[in-house]
UDP-3-O-acyl-N-acetylglucosamine deacetylase
Amino acid sequence: MQTTIRTAISFEGIGLHSGKPARLTIRPASANHGVWFKRVDILLGDNMVPARWDAVELSPLCTRIKNRAGVEISTVEHVMAALAGCGVHNALIEIDGPEVPILDGSSAPFVRGILSRGARVLPMPLRVMEVLTPVEVHTAHGWARLSPGQGGLSMDFHIDFDDAAIGVQDKTLNLANGTFVRELCDSRTFCRQADVDTMRANGLALGGNMENAVVVDGDRVLSPGGLRHADEAVRHKMLDALGDLSLAGVPILGHYTGHKAGHSMTNMLLREIFSMPEAFRMIEVDGHTAARLPGAGVVRDEIPAVA
């Protein structure tokens, strides 16, 4: 069945790119509502923005959504991953600015808050997208694919960076039974020191610091305390991918492969599969399939202690 969060939970912080303070509140919503953002700082006109693939404005550094009135919300991927990873299908997210607070750079604070409230089951069957045939998109830098899976959502990801502190990393995970909460949710966004300098020169990453991002320079990790996982970078890429895939509006049954992929490429992939009706079908899930979805059976004690 569909779910929503049991009671509201709020978060405060600064935007990673804007550097502006933000307050975000996740509120319960009814069945078939989906996930929507509401800009409570906008009092006139349409302040509702759908968390949906066709509302995405392509951006390489974060996921930004916009409604037809031009109202935007950026850096939605971490809170979207938390909702998907905790099995919350319907929510109203109120926010008082244009960017989701970065918090510690991972999804763990959102996961901790969501699980502290718990999920409420709604009287409506859950529909999911089942991938039937492989769909793939390419750019000059990498590629991404959705292909038929084994009844749930699984993922493998490959990254390759010149900086030895990251280097080449590969990881494969089945996201059933709380894997996202245990394995991915605490992995932080990362960047190269040279990229920080470039982004700030262009008015980006104004809220980034050594506490909410892993910063590397060559073979050195500059952030205090080092890495939470030896392969934290590829884990964070998988976290981002789950958040971006959740913009399909329903859970996905299939296998996602990302080869040096990012936000824009995952959205390109969703746009491609939605343009191919023969590549998927929407089905109501039974109890067996529901038990294999990312948020099934998660408990708060599974959040990694390091986060």
Observations:
- Residues 2 and 118 are 14 Å apart (CA to CA).
